[in-house]
Every structure is written in C-alpha cells, then in structure tokens.
Design goal:
The structure holds 2 protein chains of 2 kinds. Chain A is of the alpha/beta class. Chain A has helices at about 40-50, 70-75, 95-100, 110-120, 120-125, 135-150, 165-185, 195-200, 220-225, 225-235, and strands spanning about 5-10, 15-25, 30-35, 55-60, 65, 80, 155-160, 185-190, 205-210, 210-220. In chain B, strands 1-2 form a two-stranded antiparallel ribbon.
C-alpha cells in the first residue's frame, strides 16, 4: 500500500471541507480523484502535507503514519506534489527551478535526473536559461511536473495539471503521466476536472462531492457510468 | 483628461495642450496658498501679501515643462518601438546585460582599490568614499533580507546600532580591540536578527514591515532611555580607533607607532586611508560571501521563498530556517558595518540610528534593483553623493535628493539594475554541479 487515508475530516473554521474520506492508492497504480469546483479535491491533497491539518482521521504513507508530521518533513518523504496553478518560481530560470526540485535529493543523482527530465520534456532543455515566468502555460506545467520529479518520488500527486491548457498540451501531459507510470514505476494520484482524460489513464477513480466520496471503481467503469457521464462529461467537451 | 496619452500614434498638439493645461490647473490650485500668498512680519503683526506675478510665472513654467516632457517621452517611446524585434531581442540583450554587469563590477573594484592612492592627500574624497562603502555594506546586508528573501525590513538600522554599541561597550568597558570585537559584535547582531525573525515568521509584506519598523524603534528608544547601559542620548564617546594590527596611528608615543615602524613621516591621512581599506575589505568579504551563498542550495532557497513560499514547503524546504537564516545573516552584516562605524567616528549616539537611516538603507536596495549586488553600489554612490554635491544648494539639498530618487524610479521602475542574474550558467550545470 502506497497511501491510505482513513476517516479523514478537515475543517476550515466552520466549513466542513472533508467529511470522512477513505481512499487508498496501491503501489504502481494511477488513481484519479474527480469532482466539481469546491468539492474539496485540493483540500484533500494539501491535507496530506498537513496544510490544513486534518481534524480527525489517519494518513499512512508507505507504511508510516504521517498525519502529524511537519509539512517539510512529509515533503522529504518519497512524495512530490505538482500544486494547483503550477507554482513555479517565475523569476528564476528553468534550470534553477529544476535544481530547487532537487534541494532535498542526493546531489550525486543530479546529472542523471536532469538528463531524464530532458528526455521526458525536450522543450525544457532548450529553455534552460529562460526565466520560468516567460514560459507558455503548457511549458510551465511541464516544468512543474519535472521539478516535482527531480526529488525521485515514489508517489506523485498532481492537482489539475490540465487546467487552462490547449488540447494538444493536455494530450501530451497525460501521455507523459502514463509513461512515468509504465516506464519509471511512479505511482500517481491525479486530481482532475477533465474526467474524460483522467479516467482513461487511471486504473481506478474516486468521485468527490461536497467533501464525501460518492463513487469509486475502475477508471473504465466510471467512464461508462451514467451518473459520472451526466455530472462530469455531458456538456463538457469530452472530445479533447 | 487622461494622465497619459494612449500608446497609439503621436498625440496632436491640441491633445498635448489640453494635457498640459490640466497639469497647469493643478499647479495653480496648489500654487495659490503656497506661492500666491505669503506672510510678512510687520511690526509684530503678520500681514498677508499676494504674489500673483510669481504665481503666474510658476504656472506658465509648469505648462511649458509638461509640454516638453510629453514631447520628449513620446520621442523616446517612438524610438524604442522603432527598433525591430524588440521583444525577441530580450533574452539576448539580457545575456549581454549580465556580461556588462560583470565588467562593470570589476571596473568598480579596480577603481575602489586605487582611489585612496590617487587621492592620498584629499581627506574629503577618501572620507566620502568610506561613507559610500559603509552604505554599500549596509545595503548588501539588507539585500539578503529584502532583495533575495523578499522580507520587507524597515528596521535595519537596529542591527547597525547593535553592532556599533556592542563594539563601543566592549572597547570602552572591557578594553577589547577592534579585531577581537568585530566577530563578537557580528554574532550579537545575528542573535538580534533571530530575535526579530522569530515573531515575524508568519508575517509577510505590509505586516512584516510594520513589525520591523517597531523593532527598529524599540532598539533606538531603549538606547535613548537606558542611560546606565548606553549613555542615553549622550551616547558613548572616546571609542578607540582601530590600530594597524597593534600599531596605533599617532604622531608619537611610548609604543611604536604605525608611521615610525614603516619609516614614514606621521600623517593623519594614514588612518583615514587605513579605515577606507578596512571597510573595503569588509564589503568585499560580504560580497564574496553573499554571492557564494546565492549559488548554493541554501542561498537559492531564499530567492525561491521570495517567489513562492507554498511551493517551497511542498519541495521539502524548512521555510522557518530559510527565513531565520536570511534575518540572521542580514543582521550580522549590518552589525559588522555598525562596528566599523563606531570605530571610525569614535563617538556614537542613538541619533545615528533613527528610522531615517533604515529608510535610506532600504532605498539603496530598492533603488539599486532588489537583489542586485552592483545595483546596491550604484545606489549608494547616488544616495551619498547627491547630498554631498547638493551642499552648494544648501537648503534645497534634500529637495534635490528627493527629486533624484523620484526621477530614478520613474526612469527605471525596477531599480537601476533590475535584471536578475541567474545563479548559474548552463555550462556550469553541465560540467558538474557545485
Ligand atoms: N483556506 C481556506 N479557508 C476557508 N475555506 C477554504 C479554504 N480553502 C478551501 N476552502 C473551502 O473548502 C472547500 C473545498 O475547496 P477546495 O479548494 O478543496 O476545492 P476543489 O475541489 O479543489 O475545487 P477546484 O476544482 O475549484 O479547485 C471550498 O468550499 C472552499 O471554499
Ligand atoms: Mg482545487
């Protein structure tokens, strides 16, 4: 078991954002969590890092209870986050951003890891000295993923990586995720509103609604389910 | 009446005229109480006199000035826009800019080295240059906190004061020498930096600025009121001057003096020049230290934190330590500058460490271009030299000072050198990472 949440509740003051979440990710899986705006998806991801702290429940990562660990300590485990809105360092160069991803990693791996990132995202190698803030949105998303991968995570968390990207870039990002999972053995927990793409890459999916998990199952089954189609696919543009 | 004419084609003269008339109207309204009316003392009673011709001249000058200014700005804009591929050029010109900064740095270094030799009999020049270097050092210290770590600190003079008083007390009360007291005073200032940093960990931006402002005032007010400890408003005098590694700068004495030991004729300039080289060495050390740290993961973390604190946490950085280390280092550098200041003046009092001082140091960092080391040097030169040059204008001196600051910020909104230097070149990264 890579990650296990049991009975997780989160409050923001009076707002009860997560109401008893049970969720698990097996080693080697791609799991996706879909839900509407405000369902609590980002809250769930951030609470893994203790921001915000869970008010009750337990989070176990790789056999260790991380529920009460400080944020930076959790982040030093083999777990990396690609946050909502990318959050790259805009005034620093692409290279510096990649190095920041590896601040806590073993420096001996640096050269190898950089090469791996150039292979995954050739555009980054061309832009090493460009200020990251001047990259296009899609390039920034790739940089954010590459930065997270520089720490050699076993578990990669992504919060809406396709947000605001053109169809071509979305395809590329999801292809990369599949490649990471199949060729590099990275376990992935993916948060998406783009249910169509997400459920096709994922082995399993969860549907979050008002802080509760209302449905779970294999990616393909959810994709076929009438309720999911009605709520997250119809009226959207599943075509891309 | 829009304050700026839209960026389209050149505005007609009628538009410019309207724009200038609007500005002139503001000048008129402001000018009536300030210029149009004046009071004279006539046998004990105040009488109001009017000066309409003067006011008219003022308004006319504003009108013409505005017309000319707009004309000049439009010309400038058209020239800039006229250059082909201005945007595409950006990265390349940036790289050239970084190279030029490198050259300018070495040039400034060379000039700083030979300056006292060229002006070895001009006390005024060497003294002023020493003052510039003190501000350079203060600026570099604050640059770590504000420029790199992005923590707005309005109380830097507090650390300057801590360093100065630490040396003053250690030397006058316990007979410590300059060189022995220097590291200790630096450490004391660093501890004060931590003491300030700790309560500020959760604060950002405006809120942080207010707390640091308060901290600066607390230190100053404590120094004013704690008379037994600090001498209160009278300060501390007869602080010993640094010696040349044990050889005092004195005309003659029981112990061997500097001049005697080197077979020179005594001259008061020896000490002035020595002091200059001491602060030059201290600043160069500071620069080497900060530039080196910036290239290490620990230093790069400061900049990353300025950019995005949450991302830093998610990458496993301990933001608490990153912040505290920036505060401590900045404070220590400020403290070292304070030690030098006390040793140079021989007398210190809380007067020297008012908010005004913090504001000037902050202006140096902002004016120089946040985070730029060479920018701090240029801004220190400007901010020290302008009041000096302005001495000829006596009471208009500070007016000149303020106008210069406004002009620089209008001309270069990001500071004199606003382009950030990357902490490593591509080639360096390829060939193994430090
Ligand atoms: N810092 C906060 N303080 C108070 N309420 C918050 C905070 N962050 C989130 N919330 C609330 O918690 C709920 C869940 O928010 P969350 O950001 O997790 O949604 P989400 O599923 O990620 O939505 P989206 O798809 O729009 O990103 C929302 O009602 C939101 O208003
Ligand atoms: Mg969200």
């Amino acid at each position: 078991m890579m990650l296990q949440l049991s009975g997780v509740h989160v409050h923001y003051g009076h707002i009860h954002a997560l109401r008893g979440i049970d969720l698990s990710v097996q080693i080697g899986e791609v799991v996706t969590l879909i839900g509407a705006n405000g369902a609590g998806k980002s809250t769930l991801l951030m609470s893994l890092f203790g921001q915000p702290r869970v008010s009750s429940g337990r989070i176990v990562f790789d056999g260790e209870d991380i529920t009460r660990l400080p944020t930076h300590v959790i982040a030093r485990r083999d777990i990396s986050l690609v946050p909502e809105g990318r959050r790259i360092f805009p005034r620093m160069t692409v290279m510096e951003n990649l190095l920041m991803g590896a601040v806590m990693a073993n420096p001996d791996n640096l050269e190898v890891d950089l090469k791996r990132m150039y292979a995954l995202f050739p555009i980054l190698e061309e832009r090493l000295e460009q200020r990251a803030g001047t990259l296009s949105g899609g390039e920034q998303q790739m940089l954010a993923i590459a930065r997270a991968l520089m720490a050699r995570p076993k578990l990669l968390l992504l919060d809406e990586p396709s947000l605001g990207l053109a169809p071509l870039y979305i395809k590329k990002i999801f292809q990369t995720l599949r490649e990471l999972n199949q060729n590099y053995g990275v376990t992935i927990l993916l948060i998406e509103q783009n249910a169509h793409h997400a459920l096709r890459v994922a082995h399993r999916g969860y549907v979050l609604q008002h802080g509760r998990i209302v449905m779970t199952g294999a990616g393909r089954d959810l994709l076929a389910s009438a309720e999911v189609r009605a709520a997250y696919l119809e009226g959207g543009n599943p075509g891309n | 009446m829009p304050p700026f004419v839209a960026a389209g084609d050149a505005p007609t003269w009628a538009e410019r005229g309207r724009d200038a008339a609007g500005i002139a109207l503001i000048a008129l309204l402001l000018g009536i109480p300030m210029i149009g009316l004046t009071t004279v003392d006539q046998g004990g009673a105040l009488r109001v006199l009017t000066r309409w011709p003067l006011l008219a001249a003022f308004v006319a000058a504003v009108f013409c000035g505005r017309l000319l200014l707009r004309h000049a700005l439009d010309l400038l804009k058209r020239r800039r826009r006229g250059r082909p591929g201005a945007a595409a050029e950006d990265e390349e010109s940036g790289r050239r800019g970084v190279r030029m900064i490198g050259w300018a740095g070495w040039l400034a270094f060379g000039a700083a080295l030979v300056l006292p030799l060229v002006f070895s009999d001009n006390r005024y020049v060497v003294d002023t240059a020493t003052t510039v270097l003190i501000y350079v050092m203060l600026g570099w210290g604050l640059n770590v906190v504000v420029g790199l770590a992005g923590l707005l600190d309005l109380g830097h003079a507090a650390f300057y004061a801590v360093g100065a008083y630490a040396y003053a007390l250690l030397s006058t009360q316990f007979g410590w020498g300059f060189w022995a007291a220097l590291p200790v005073a630096g450490l004391v200032a660093a501890v004060f930096g931590l003491a300030l940093g700790w309560p500020c960990l959760r604060l950002r931006g405006d809120y942080l600025a207010i707390v640091t402002l308060g901290f600066g005032e607390i230190v100053r007010v404590a120094l004013v009121n704690w008379t037994d400890f600090s001498g209160g408003p009278n300060g501390i005098s007869s602080i010993p001057r640094p010696s040349f590694f044990g050889l005092p700068f004195a005309p003659s004495g029981d112990a061997p003096t500097f001049a005697a030991s080197f077979g020179l004729e005594f001259s008061p300039m020896h000490r002035i020049i020595f002091l200059y080289y001491v602060i030059l060495a201290l600043s160069l050390l500071t620069n080497a230290l900060v530039s080196r740290l910036r290239r290490l993961p620990a230093g790069r973390a400061w900049e990353a934190m300025r950019e995005d604190e949450i991302a830093c946490r998610a990458l496993g950085m301990n933001v608490t330590n990153v912040k505290l280390s920036a505060f401590a280092l900045g404070a220590m550098l400020g403290g070292l500058a304070g030690v030098f200041f006390a040793a140079r003046q021989g007398f210190i009092s809380p007067e020297s460490f008012t908010f005004n001082e913090s504001a000037i140091i902050l202006s140096i960092v902002v004016l120089g271009g946040m985070g730029s080391q060479l920018g701090v040097v240029l801004a220190s030169l400007v901010l020290v030299l302008i009041p000096e040059i302005g001495r000829d204008f006596s009471e208009y001196r500070m007016l000149l000072f303020g106008a210069a600051m406004i002009l620089i910020m209008v001309w270069r909104p990001g500071g004199i050198l606003s382009r950030r230097e990357p902490t490593l070149r591509h080639a360096a990264a390829e060939g193994g990472h430090a």
